[in-house]
Amino acid sequence: MTATVIDGKAFAATVRAKVATHVERLKAEHGVTPGLAVVLVGEDPASQVYVRAKGKQTVEVGMASFEHKLSPETSEKDLLALIDRLNADPKVHGILVQLPLPSHLNSDLVINRIDPAKDVDGFHISNVGLLGTGQKAMVPCTPLGCLMMLRDHHGSLSGMNAVVIGRSNIVGKPMASLLLGDSCTVTIAHSRTRDLPGTVRRADIVVAAVGRPEMVTGDWIKPGATVIDVGINRIERDGKTVLVGDVDYASASAVAGAITPVPGGVGPMTIACLLANTLTACCRANGLAEPEGLTA
Ligand code: NDP
User: Fold this and answer.
1) What is the pLDDT of residues 96-135, one digit of tens each?
2) Pick from 289, 268, 291, 295: which is nearest to 8 by CA?
3) How far is the CA of 89 from the centre of ligand 1 (A)?
């Protein structure tokens, strides 16, 4: 079997187009422009790239983008004061603090200072609790993107066996909650899981969020299963730096029914879902109908 490629790049473009159409309607019919504030503390090169890409795509879908670049020495008091100002600003519907923060800043304290209604990353403890109890939440962008692709590919996920490899707060756990919400039978695997290949082999849906290059090989995959590869790993191959996932694409795509590539799979969906979450937050803040298909 040769797997169908789930094209995250193309799917992300359709999500952005849907967001842009809705933003235009909000502006024309309600005089409201969704706004996203991104806060970057320090000069981490990877974070700078992400923040630039987020700002560019925010503007491209017609939203207002507010970038706050702070020095690496910024005090916790000043950062919290900025978040308080953004919480109170009616032009700002979404707030994202780029992680990781410099080590002198307490990430939990900072994230939990964001108004949960503006927490478009879905990391605030209130949103974690809402998602965990099946209530309306702001949902973390990467797992939301994975869920959208799975729903688009399968329609209903009800009754499917899903194995999520990885139990982080930003990917693995929320992914498992979302799959459970769609009535999958969910297993969360991690570094202490016994017989990981055997566990994965039972899955109709595999989500790999581990951070280990090409760890999941074709012989772990049940024939016809859907494989979502969240991993982003830079490795040296043939004298070049290349980007690979947590799944060995060559062997897995020979067995799976469908698979996301790296790059061009989950990655592009993450920013698209950030824009979708900002739109959702704006609609909720203004008591307007939320766009369909852009939330969990
Ligand atoms: P974390 O490091 O926070 O979590 C990794 C998880 O993998 C942990 O739960 C860990 O288990 C588990 N794990 C590690 N080694 C093994 C192993 N040998 N067998 C089974 N499980 C293992 O990573 P993140 O969740 O933040 O990210 C995971 C990957 O996804 C990374 O490659 C990251 O770059 C990528 N990523 C991609 C995004 C995108 O937009 N595409 C967004 C976010 C992340 P334990 O808890 O037991 O230690």
Assistant:
1) 999 999 999 999 999 999 999 999 999 999 999 999 999 9
2) 268
3) 35
